[in-house]
Amino acid sequence: MSRFVHPDLALSPTLDERAGMDFVSALRSHVLNDMAAHMKTRWTETIAPKLPAPPATGQEVHKAIKPDLFFRFYSATRVNAQEMVWDSVRGTVERERAAFAGRLAGLTGKAGGTLELDPALEVPKNVSAIDVHLMPGGYANGADGAAGAIYENGLGVFSFGLMGENLDDIGSSIALWLSARFPDFRPQRILDLGCTVGHQTLPWARTYPVAEVIGIDVAAPGLRYAHARAEAQGVKAHFKQRDARATGFEDGSFDLVFSSMFLHELPLKDIRAVFAEAKRLLRPGGLMLHYELPPNGQMDPYDAFYLDWDCFYNAEPYYKGYRDQDPAELCRTAGFAADGFFQAVVPSIGWYGADAVKAEASAEATGIDGNTGRLADGVRWFTYGAWA
Questions:
Q1: Is residue 202 part of a domain?
Q2: N or C: which end of the chain has fewer CB within 10 A?
Q3: pLDDT of 154-190, one tens digit each?
Q4: Which of 124, 122, 101 is nearest to 221 (CA)?
Q5: Contacts of 141 (CB under 8 A, 6+ apart)
């Protein structure tokens, strides 16, 4: 919502519109905290004890819990809350749309970043043909930056404060963790794959201020917004409309290739192509790093089921297919050495504070638990990478 957005890009919702945004945020928090906790208790105390054997996978949990009335009520409420996220901001964006396009253009040149769009680029069907996250029209719809404004303001409502005041908690947490964990690693050129509107791109520019930071995406509306957003915040970053499967950059031209919540939106064949492309792009000693949802193979069956909910009810059809993969194996298949792989669970900087993030960087790796990757109170972020 607008209070999480830089003043130069903030919308002017009416009191009724703001009240609607606040209501949806509170509803989302209730669903993902209180209702989710009750559903787990119901599973543990009522449903699971009646099964002939404990489920071994999240898929088995889903099958067993699906007929339950409370699960159905939870799912219906969560789907409606998700649709209400976009409805709560879309009217404001549409009312201000004509003037907003001029505001985006007026921000160019403030920080020295650039925007490069490619009208000839064919947007993949996993973006163009799906209303991902149930966002009407998706991310590639329209020639202006309105889809970006809907997404950013919607994310403020969606995350009910857990993404931080700048909606960049993932990037800020992981960039701080990486700089503390590997203090001798000082990337000079950084690429963010599938950057959308650049929330998680800018923390890399702040953490490594001498680096050239580039964010790419296939959807032009988000990139228009990302460029204006970076300029408004005084952060120099470059945004280009390119496909992460075949970026067009030269071999060995980056020190760090990063993505945030991107891979689970791709078919498996495209994920493999992205990993191979990242390997091609990295200089010797460079790093491929992803923030993603933790893999099903490393989770308790119930927690695996809980995260896979989005695959079945939130218009994210590739979600479970990605989470069923082994990250280390994906890296090895792309040509990364097995001993160069690592993974970590990073505390949210907004929830736990910077000191906790730095402490985690110097401690023994924390394991995955029910709060890992889950947008709820006490969230922690799962990240993994491989050195070239």
A1: yes
A2: C
A3: 999 999 999 998 999 999 999 999 999 999 999 999 9
A4: 101
A5: 147, 221
Which pTM does this prediction carry? 0.96
Q: Which domain holds residue 268?
A: 169-387
- Rounded to whole angstroms, how far apart are CA atoms 244 and 218? 8
Between the CA of residue 15 and those of 1, 9, 65, 146, 377, what are the distances in Å? Answer: 13, 18, 40, 21, 28
Residue showing tokens 């699960």 = 71
Gap between the Cα atoms of 215 and 194, Å rounded:
7
Structure tokens at 226: 């990302």
Distance CA 348, CA 299 (A): 19
Report CA 6 to chain centroid distance, whole Å. 19
Cβ-contact 278, 249 below 8 angstroms: no
- Asked if the structure places residue 89 within a domain, the reply is no
In a domain, 112, yes or no: no
Question: What is the mean pLDDT of the segment spanning 308-320?
Answer: 97
Instruction: Kindly report the CATH number assigned to the domain that includes residue 183.
Output: 3.40.50.150
341-347 and 380-387 as β-strands: parallel, antiparallel, unpaired?
A: antiparallel
Beta-carbon contacts of residue 174 (< 8 Å; ≥ 6 apart): 203, 260, 289, 291, 346, 381, 383
Helices (H), the chain: 15-29, 36-42, 58-65, 69-95, 97-106, 125-128, 146-158, 169-181, 202-207, 220-232, 268-281, 301-313, 319-323, 327-333, 349-352, 354-361
Q: What is the DSSP letter of 263?
A: G
Q: State the distance between the two ends of the chain, measured CA to CA, in whole angstroms.
A: 40
Q: Do the bridges between strand 380-387 and strand 254-260 make them parallel or antiparallel, or are there none, so unpaired?
A: unpaired
Asked, for residue 254, whether it belongs to a domain, the answer is yes
Radius of gyration for the chain, computed over Cα atoms and rounded to the nearest angstrom:
20
The structural domain count of the chain equals 1
Q: Considering only CA atoms, which of 172, 243, 227 is closest in space to residue 205?
A: 172
The average pLDDT across 84-94 equals 96
